[in-house]
């Protein structure tokens, strides 16, 4: 399998020249197993009952289209990965993040923080309830807008085992204009970042649903 991940340096994505390594990477002499023996780990007891429902974390309902996002975390052989910590963060329905440096002139939502987490079950499945994020301008180039997306972080048994990536929504017209999405060299790999509408999980009169699986080693990392 070819590497699905974007290059460290991708000039159309303006931030990469500032953070791409200028020298060849040096691999450590110790293997990953050794460092994982002494690295921090997360505690399952820290998860709250509403951590995976971003629409119920405040006193009122958030503004926007309620959606359900489900999927499975799988290893490279297609086997489920149970008890993996999955975290998400996203903009609100107006395309605004809660962040001190956020300058997009769109409204904040007092009932939406935009962050959640859960553990995968025995079948590697995760589930979130949230609102569909809006597109937003990001200043990378003239008239630059990010497609609607949700950031995902998947931990293994330690903080050193982490995948950070993004999930997109089908049919977004901004795909062709987004250098982060286009930085992934393989078209089929880019398609693996796009969720699919899921009528079977959609709840009548309540919420649409999208399904998106994360395959370790095959799902591209965040650019």
UniProtKB/TrEMBL annotation:
<dbReference type="InterPro" id="IPR012785">
    <property type="entry name" value="Protocat_dOase_b"/>
</dbReference>
<dbReference type="Pfam" id="PF00775">
    <property type="entry name" value="Dioxygenase_C"/>
</dbReference>
<dbReference type="InterPro" id="IPR015889">
    <property type="entry name" value="Intradiol_dOase_core"/>
</dbReference>
<protein>
    <submittedName>
        <fullName>Protocatechuate 3,4-dioxygenase subunit beta</fullName>
    </submittedName>
</protein>
<comment type="similarity">
    <text>Belongs to the intradiol ring-cleavage dioxygenase family.</text>
</comment>
<keyword id="KW-0560">Oxidoreductase</keyword>
<keyword id="KW-0223">Dioxygenase</keyword>
<dbReference type="InterPro" id="IPR024756">
    <property type="entry name" value="PCDO_beta_N"/>
</dbReference>
<dbReference type="InterPro" id="IPR000627">
    <property type="entry name" value="Intradiol_dOase_C"/>
</dbReference>
<dbReference type="Pfam" id="PF12391">
    <property type="entry name" value="PCDO_beta_N"/>
</dbReference>
<feature type="domain" description="Intradiol ring-cleavage dioxygenases">
    <location>
        <begin position="69"/>
        <end position="97"/>
    </location>
</feature>
<dbReference type="InterPro" id="IPR050770">
    <property type="entry name" value="Intradiol_RC_Dioxygenase"/>
</dbReference>
